[in-house]
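Subject: Interface between my chains keeps coming out wrong

I've been trying for a while to get a sensible model of this assembly. When I model each chain on its own everything looks fine, but I need the whole thing in one frame so I can look at the contacts. Pasting all components below, labels as-is. Any help appreciated, I'm running out of ideas.
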Amino acid sequence: MAYSATAESHDHHDHRPSGIWRWLSTTNHKDIGTLYLIFAGVMFFVGGSMAMVIRLELFKPGMQFVDPAFFNSMTTVHALAMIFGGVMPAWVGLANWMIPLQVGAPDMALPRMNNFSFWLLPFAFTLLLIGFFVPGGAPAGGWTLYPPLVLQGGDSFPLAVFAIHLMGASSIMGAINVIVTIMNMRAPGMTLLRMPLFVWTWLITAYLLIAVMPVLAGAVTMLLTDHFFGTSFFSASGGGDPVMFQHVFWFFGHPEVYILILPAFGVVSEVIPTFSRKPLFGYEAMVYATASIAFLSFIVWAHHMFTVGMPLAGELFFMLSTMLIAIPTGVKVFNWSATMWKGSLTFEPPMLFCLAFLFLFTIGGFSGLMLAIAPADFQYQDTYFVVAHFHYVLVPGSIFTIIAAVYYWLPKWTGHMYNMTLAKWHFWLSTIFVNVLFFPQHFLGLAGMPRRIPDYATQFADWNMVSSIGGFGFGLSQLLFPYIVIKCIRGGEKAAARVWEGAHGLEWELPSPTPYHTWETPPSIALIHKGGEHWTEDGDDA
Amino acid sequence: MKEPAANEPGMNDALTLRRQNRSLTGKLWLFVAGSFAFGFALVPLYRVLCQVTGFGDQKLLSEAIAPITAANAANAPVAIGADESRTVTVEFMANLPTVGNWEFRPVQASLQVHPGQLYEARFVARNLTGHDTVAQAVPNIAPGEAASWFHKTQCFCFSPQAFKTGEQRVLPVRFFIDRALPVYVDRVTLSYTFYDTALRVAAR
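Reply #2:
Try treating it as a single job with all components included. I did that and got this:
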């Protein structure tokens, strides 16, 4: 292909410094994407080991291994590490790698800001994790940081607040970069409705990020001034209201959960057509469904607080608006199913993970609908049913699709195929154990077991033991993932440019591995149409 | 910078793109600043919302609970001394957060008490940890609404208790139940959880 010749000639004038300085100073979107993904992988194991401590303590009733305060730190920091350190940086990393390749841009629009936004993250998490070594221990009031409990924490409280400020700044800059890249850097001919869905879902996610991350920054700033500077935003003694914090927090928090899942929808919308060898069913419907979910996410936040004592009208409004979300989400699930209908399916690892996503995310969606029923929520609130629900949407939802995305694009990045057999083992072990881990938690929650407790009544013992066994199995099987990835980086069978025969889109027109600089000459209109035809039914309507 | 090839965007285009990127970035930062301000603006906005709609209005809420308050006031006895006409069952429970290292139990499972009269209950604790230590009992009263009418005048839970290796002690708690205890409460549970605080101090 004509492109590879130019790409190779470009490689001669790479001026990248070598060694550690290359990674510290890099402004290359692929390098920064790699850094984000490595960071996310590390935090995934840090947060995962905390989950192992939680499941170990809950293996049997009674207090076995850790004291209650440390247990509470585990649940709190596990959540913060997984959300802000694992899932979000993984998506930003994938955006960095793939968006310029997919829209035909030579790099992200703001490469230096890109470098800065990544390097904020290690500092943010150092601040957060230092909390374990200061008087009072790490934050233990839950990741939702509700006052007045969170204000009673030890010296780690201001550290956690600053850590959240830095994470917020990092993701805001990442989001701005994505928006500017998509809006200004698309190759000529790459119209908005010809963009791959991963780009679309990320564009919408980026808008959510810049709309709500500053609100979280504001909320934690108010906590900080309440604690140290005598304000009383949330203190009833000074005329404030602790419930106010919950409103501000969840105004951020609900869009945040869509920030974690919308890019996953994008990945699934690319992987399923590839391995079904059919165009995506209902491309435009997918775009509009994503946009509707994003819009609805702003008007449903109080469904997290049905039990705080809201007026009836509020309960009804938030219940109904929450249920509305099932409509665009249903459109997506049906579109994915319709894409597979009568397709020539094959089951490579990325497809397997996306299929597991389709089933298990839907289960998480259904338990979400149950929680949305305000009168029933009084029973479910703060039980393991909630824990089961959000882990079903986050683990087989976000994390499985991140793994699928890595298995999908890894040969493109490294130029090598990975060990398919091991990757399938990774899939089957993960999928079986994730259900052993989280499905029993539905039963525990319905039977009334509260969340965030280190000990429980003996009637919950059996299912907790099952859940813990699933947890250890899931945790151990994830060790396969870095092994497979590292082995693939080091070598393996050569990957073709179009790694999967059914794959369409600009990234597959580039050689594997992708050269350090790509699309310095924008792709031709013909190339863009070739990919675009695959998802836009009427490819040349632009 | 390489020279632009014939089919690459020219210098002019590159400058335009830079300008466009800057301008969009600036707008997005303004949007971010707006979001940050909006977070703070939610505080007065909610206040206004509540004022307009009457949500959470103290006056309305006190009107709603007025009948209950009145009923309670009517039942509240003014007299002091034991109210022999009423009997309340007080149950005693002892819990340990770490199984096996301590023995801790109430001497009596329950007492029948009259509101307004002083009683004493006893618990027994034995240190089986194998070393000298200090423990602290944390009380809990169920139902929670009875807690305001349950008064402890003297209690082993008021201060940390030092125990030698293998030492067994009887721990007394003196209490009375207020005569104003709502009439529908006829059973109160006093439970203690006994934490070995020395373990905690040693862990630090």
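Reply #3:
Confirming on my end. The domain at 17-187 of chain A is CATH 1.20.210.10 (Cytochrome C Oxidase; Chain A).
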